[in-house]
Amino acid sequence: MDLLSERAWAMEGGIVRMRIDWLPLLERRRLDANAEIDPDAEEALEEAPLVDVFAELIDPRENAHPMDVTAFVPLFLHESFLMLNVAVPGSFGGRMRWSCGVLENQELVFDARVFELGWVRAVANGWPSIEPLSLSAVKAWYDNLGIGIQQLATTGTASALFHLLYLARSEEDDLMSVIRLALALESVFDARGAFLGPRIESVLGRTDSLRGSLRRFLDDRDAMVVGIAPVAHPMYDDGLDARADDASLDYTEIVDFASSVIVGALQQQVRACNRLSLVV
Predict the structure, then answer these.
(1) Per the omega criterion (within 30 degrees of 0), is the bond before 234 cis?
(2) Which tens digits make up the pLDDT trace of 209-267?
């Protein structure tokens, strides 16, 4: 975590730096690793233990304001979330309570489900290649993207990452998961329609299941967007209505498929960036 102990952003008037103490998070991870956990128990994210994060802002700008921490601490945490989960999918998330300067006990919640489920699906199916990457390589790749303080994406990869952040900051929802994952998928590969499948194969390699899985994913996305997909009750209880047991209403498979392809593509970008830096 030392690589992410400090971040810096070029602003008009000077370079703003922020330092974060990750020790409380690491201690929480140590306690979790040693705890006896029921593998069948599902813990809602909002019920997860809070982890305190203490930050320090170094801002040389003449027009700096104490409340600027409300922008820079969340920015630091969003960047860290992306880099850590691209490096080791599912490794960073939960409820964080940050304090910096005049502000204390500000809460942020991140859910790494897209990264984690994408990796699990890739391992189960043997495609695409997803593996632990060095944080230094991922940090070099992320910094090379030049996103910085941008609040509007200017590249396909930035668009994909922003969609993943929206999913990480919101409760799980089939409709929004499918739509945002579709937007992220098209953005990260810079391809749509009939061009998307060949583009995925050119980046991640061929697999027999790609065409069928991609077709179902895009068909379900289109059905949702145009309003012809079945609309389920929020309870979704097949004990009340046997039709709710219809497998076609279960979007788990296509969500996991899209997640694995997106995470695989991001990791492939990291590898390509690392190879380029070695050549240079």
Answers:
(1) no
(2) 999 999 999 999 999 999 999 888 888 888 899 888 877 778 999 999 999 999 999 99
